[in-house]
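tool=predict chain=A
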Amino acid sequence: MSPSLRTLGLALMLVAAAGPALGQGVAACTAPADALSAADEERLAGLEWSRLRGLAAAMTEADGEARQIVSGLYANGLAAAGELPEGDYRCRTVKLGGISPLVAYQFFDCRIEAAEGGGYGIEKTTGSQRFSGHLEPSGDGYFYRGALNYADEGPVAYDGASERDQVGCLYKVSADGQSFVLELPSPHLESFHDVIVLLPDAGE
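tool=predict ok
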């Protein structure tokens, strides 16, 4: 069996064990015309394959607690995002595949605010690796376009040509109805598929 087929087989086993098909009944997000470079349009269109490839790699992670974090996100599929609560969020990055099978970082601080002209601005404000960008309603989720930046510099704008560029889709997690996932397919750095978990901060 080729590596690609083996990867797909492992991913399908994970999906079958987890429950309903990921994203079942949820309309995929798409980018507005001319919003992305051709290469990034391909990354966004390949989100489902990127996710499956990442989940297949995550299955091989020895840390059961880390695997549980991922299965908790996807066990019941994804749901329509609806209106996003504005304000502070707790957020963590989960990296699937690549350098390591699975890495789940600790929670840091993010913020989502209504943007002028529509949609929302999103920014990770703490931690050594940060990001910022724009969320625009699309399908049952939100289309995201943004870029990575580091703590010793300011936010970086998407330019369609940088390895820091990020594209993705945001949906609600069905299992609890309170948290969201921002999926970033085929990142340029480190991993097969990145997932930003977002929990509205109740101020506790």
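The first strand starts at residue 78 and ends at 79. The first helix runs from residue 3 to 18.
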